[in-house]
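Translate sequence into structure tokens.
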Amino acid sequence: MKIIGLVIKDDTEAKATADTLADWLESRGIAVLRQESILPGRRRPANRLAAAPPEVDCVIVLGGDGTLLSAARWIGDQQIPILGIKFGEVGFLSATTGDRVVAAAEAMLSGPLKTEPRMRLEVEVIQSGKAILKETVLNDVVINKGALARLTHIVTSIDNHYLTTYSADGLIIATPTGSTAYSLAAGGPVIHPAVPGIILTPICPFTLTNRPLIVPDSVCIELKLDKRFEDVMLTMDGQSGFAITEQTMIRVCKSRHPLQMITLPGQQYYDVLKAKLSWSGGRI
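Result follows.
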């Protein structure tokens, strides 16, 4: 490797660890490209690159899941591998913790790089018949209401075939990676990242028979509001969003560009689940 990108959470400990890691990498002849993570809604600093340069060999993220989602957007559709180092609260997407960052980098550089593809979703927003936005997301796409306590009615079709109209506080479309995020909090299932499916999870549905649904990742999901609503938002990975109306069509399909997550020796997805969800052993 010649160039490694560091995406760093705005956190004193994360920044100090990044300094240590950068010195360690540079002492081995590897150039370091540092980027500060941007909180959603914040303006991008003038010195921050809009996208990761293609010559970057991999990206190491020092932060929580939100920082890694920000880094995934920075990588875009490029197949640049990414490694998460936990400095957040939960860290489902992290491979290890901050106190083991140098050991993780050493393991990553000492042998063939092992990666695991994580399916992403391509979101296309169509307004009055014209595509106005296209984004790639790793975790989820969410339609939800704003401050007003009203139900939204979301007309949902699968491959142009009407499925149902969700009357709920909102609707989450999640990847298997995103199954442990907002979808899980809303009652959705946990799905292993290798399972080829997409999750539809209604948020507080009015009809109790509207349960979470898993569909094949080969389908295309179309969403729209069935009548005029105010203060309804579409958010993508919790990183960006905008208001939608009954004139908005949202199309969600599997992206052709999965994110390449670096895995470390001995790392097991099930161990992460047990630790993060506090699952017990044989006895309760």
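Note: The chain has a mean pLDDT of 90.
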